[in-house]
Amino acid sequence: MSLGKVPLWTYRASSCSNPRPLEFFFCPQPYLKQTVDVKTNLKGALFLGQSVCQYRLKPVAAFSSEETHPTSQEIGTLKRGNNFERWDSMTAKFAGAANLPFLLLQLPQIILNARNLLSGNKSALLAVPWLGMLTGLLGNLSLLSYFIKKRETEAVVVQTLGVVSMYVVILQLAIAEAMPLPHFFVTSIVVASGLILNCMKYFYLLNPKIWTFWEDFITIGGFSALPQVMWSTFVPYVPNTIFPGMISFVTAVTYVLMARMGKLSDEATNFLGLVSGWTATLLFMWMPVSQMWTNFLNSDNIRGLSAVSMLLAMIGNGLMIPRALFIRDLMWFTGSSWACVFYGWGNLMCLYCFNCISREFFLAATLGFVVSIGITLWRDTQAHGHSSLVTSLKELVFSP
């Protein structure tokens, strides 16, 4: 195809499995910003395990072959494409940078536990709730599988780091006999199996049937753990029982078996595919609720909270919000935003109310959080070519 007399075409290719649009621009020199061979890119999509039928090519702008210069509207389209690519790259870097605050968040606990173990002070590790760490580990493992399916490499690295760091803490608790050894051995098998299977899935080395079995396993595990953790938070105000977890376990097993036997509708089967991700997200969303409930019952515990740890949690989750909004992932956006507001900023507010941190520290953290959210919405609106900040949020909730 000769570009000398070819009208300017803008093709938008969007995948059903990955909502990030890709812009391909064809225009005559000297306005040729980027020349991409569509067939080559569709072959690349096939290499990534996606079918050609998932892509829709739609010409959205053109000018006649007699014209030699694009209009201002067409130049604006090119600029929006450049903004889209830059913001795509920046959000991916932000998500990758979240590894640093999350690493620093777990590192002090790991170092403190190691010092106590070396000094023979095993009783100090009893203050770390192994059940809460196990719940967080299961959540990280479930989200790791979720992001591997979406091919979000930066989020995969974050979740892998979370799995490894929490397992190190659990290993320390097992050495200190603060966690039952049978539970530790089962946890070790699950973690090792999960990391191996996810790694094989990422590099397209795993049999689909094995991956389906793993997805069913984490769906049942997450759906069973969530109600039990929520119930246990309010003990002793409610009876100490495993009844909620048992009911959820039976319900999840029944639902999964019916799905695999083809007894469910397509809508119900698709919903099952989202259960593991949403249960993992809800587990993380419940952690700040549990912490704030503990603060309400015993205000003395607030002084034991680390303001730096809460700030790091807010920064780490905040760095992932732009990427979640950009790819229109409601689950990821909800979990990260909730953690920022309630686990990070919410606990900082509690610390400020009880005079554990200065006003300047709290106001600076609040201002930084509000400004970052505003910039995220503004840049996302520009990247997608919208005229209103609300449009991005509408697309996030109702899909574009």
TrEMBL record:
Signal peptide: none annotated. It comes from Fraxinus pennsylvanica. InterPro entries: MEX1/MEX1-like. One of its GO terms (molecular function) is maltose transmembrane transporter activity. It comes from the Eukaryota. The chain crosses the membrane at residues 124-148, 155-175, 181-205, 241-259, 271-289, 301-320, 332-355, 361-378. Keywords: Membrane, Transmembrane, Transmembrane helix. This is Maltose excess protein 1-like, chloroplastic. One of its GO terms (cellular component) is chloroplast envelope. PANTHER family: MALTOSE EXCESS PROTEIN 1, CHLOROPLASTIC-RELATED. The keyword Membrane applies.
